């Protein structure tokens, strides 16, 4: 919800609250003025009229502060007494105002049947009083009175439901805002893991190789240390530009195929004993940045896990866009390394695989991760070109055969 929308909602809520708070007093005051000037009063009738309407307004004020059922019953009794005010004039069409307003207030009480019973009693009493004063049973007037009671009480119930819906909407808006914050935190966490985790893994591999060269007195030690320094500087650059890297439209420069080629070249330069085959199909239409970023991160995470855990000699990375007729793009990473040892339930998936799951689920794609039937490990990601067309389906090991430990 935007700040402008929230401001409009708060303004509307304030107006509704003001109207519901003062409308009842204004209507009761108007009914008293009608009764005061439309008929000729004696001292007794004036005092009785003033006392009943004054007591009704005071009781309503107290009832809204306390909400005890007894106060609402007092309002009901005062509305009934107002029907027996001495009426030396036949001009009594103002008389149903207070009973009708009281019925509107009572109809929202819990249990609902009690409020409806009291409102119905007021309608019957008002109709009988008008018939006695007019000394005739006017069916048309009774029907109009019934319609008036029903319509006004129905509007009151509708206003109450709208107020409750308004309150729920505000609560849901707060929940949506909180979920949006959590989602953004998760996205940032995924990006930090995918960028810094990948760079730090490379750095660890370089330093481990340098340690081995030192033990053997290998002259390539200096070259390996310089390469490790280059990786460290690149990692530092990623940290300094983390804000830009977190933006999906700036995370990838160039096409997805170009970035995958760079990723594979980097992998080969750090894993000399692993031969990687890159099989790319050029897309007939450009992939949107969100889709390209998700596929790139999935490939990056899969290669990082292969480097750290698989001990593979062959890796296949395939990007298939031949399924574009179905509105899908497929990424497959297959290696001939070890499938992994059984791990405890709580350790079956690290944050990297969790990040892949979340990325795929957000785009309504499918993920298959597990041992391949021909040996090794297979990760297969299928994403719809339009995320509204797909349905998220995640299939990854839970209790065993899990390679990732990140």
TrEMBL record:
Gene3D superfamilies: 1.20.5.1930, Histidine kinase-like ATPase, C-terminal domain
GO molecular function per UniProt: ATP binding; phosphorelay sensor kinase activity; protein dimerization activity
Signal peptide (residue range): none
Reaction(s) catalysed by this chain's protein: ATP + protein L-histidine = ADP + protein N-phospho-L-histidine
One Gene Ontology term, aspect cellular component: membrane
InterPro entries for the chain: HATPase_C_sf (IPR036890), HATPase_dom (IPR003594), Sensor_HK_TwoCompSys (IPR050482), Sig_transdc_His_kin_sub3_dim/P (IPR011712)
CDD domains: HATPase_UhpB-NarQ-NarX-like
Coiled-coil blocks: none
SMART domains: HATPase_c
Residue spans crossing the bilayer: 15-37, 43-63, 70-87, 116-133, 139-159
UniProt keyword Cell cycle present: no
Protein name: histidine kinase
Lineage of the organism: Bacteria, Bacillati, Chloroflexota, Ktedonobacteria, Ktedonobacterales
Residues annotated as domain Histidine kinase/HSP90-like ATPase: 290-387
Record flagged with keyword Membrane: yes
One Pfam family from the record: HATPase_c
Enzyme kind, highest EC tier: transferase
Family annotation (PANTHER family): NITRATE/NITRITE SENSOR PROTEIN NARX-RELATED (PTHR24421), NITRATE_NITRITE SENSOR PROTEIN NARQ (PTHR24421:SF10)
């Amino acid at each position: 919800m935007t700040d402008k929308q929230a401001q409009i909602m708060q303004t509307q809520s304030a107006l509704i609250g003001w109207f519901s708070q003062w409308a009842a007093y204004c209507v009761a005051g108007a009914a008293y003025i009608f009764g005061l000037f439309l008929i000729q009063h004696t001292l007794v009738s004036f005092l009785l009229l003033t006392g009943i309407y004054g007591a009704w307004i005071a009781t309503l004020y107290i009832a809204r502060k306390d909400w005890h059922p007894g106060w609402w019953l007092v309002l009901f009794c005062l509305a009934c007494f107002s029907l027996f005010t001495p009426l030396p004039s036949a001009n009594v069409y103002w008389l149903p105002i207070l009973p009708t307003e009281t019925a509107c207030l009572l109809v929202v009480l819990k249990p609902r049947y009690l409020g409806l019973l009291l409102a119905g009693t007021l309608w019957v009493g008002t109709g009988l009083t008008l018939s006695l004063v007019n000394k005739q049973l006017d069916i048309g007037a009774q029907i109009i009175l019934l319609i008036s009671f029903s319509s006004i009480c129905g509007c009151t119930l509708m206003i109450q439901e709208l107020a409750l819906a308004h309150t729920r909407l505000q609560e849901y808006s707060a929940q949506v805002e909180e979920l949006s914050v959590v989602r953004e935190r998760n996205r940032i966490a995924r990006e930090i893991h995918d960028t810094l985790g990948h760079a730090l893994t490379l750095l660890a591999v370089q330093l481990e190789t340098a340690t081995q060269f030192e033990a053997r007195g290998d002259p390539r030690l200096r070259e390996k240390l310089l390469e490790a320094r280059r990786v460290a500087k690149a990692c530092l650059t990623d940290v300094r530009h983390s804000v830009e890297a977190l933006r999906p439209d700036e995370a990838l420069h160039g096409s997805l195929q170009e970035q995958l080629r760079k990723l594979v070249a980097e992998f080969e330069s750090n894993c000399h004993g692993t031969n990687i085959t890159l099989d790319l199909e050029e897309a007939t239409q450009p992939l949107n940045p969100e889709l390209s970023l998700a596929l790139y991160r999935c490939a990056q995470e899969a290669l990082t896990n292969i480097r750290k855990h698989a001990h593979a000699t062959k890796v296949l990375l395939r990007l298939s866009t031949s399924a574009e007729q179905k509105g899908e793009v497929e990424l497959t990473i297959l290696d001939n390394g070890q499938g992994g040892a059984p791990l405890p339930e709580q350790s079956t998936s690290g944050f990297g695989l969790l990040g892949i799951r979340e990325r795929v689920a957000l785009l309504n794609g499918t993920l298959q991760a597990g041992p391949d039937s021909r040996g090794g490990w297979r990760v297969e990601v299928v994403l719809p070109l339009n995320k509204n067309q797909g349905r998220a389906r995640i299939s990854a090991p839970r209790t065993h055969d899990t390679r990732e430990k990140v």
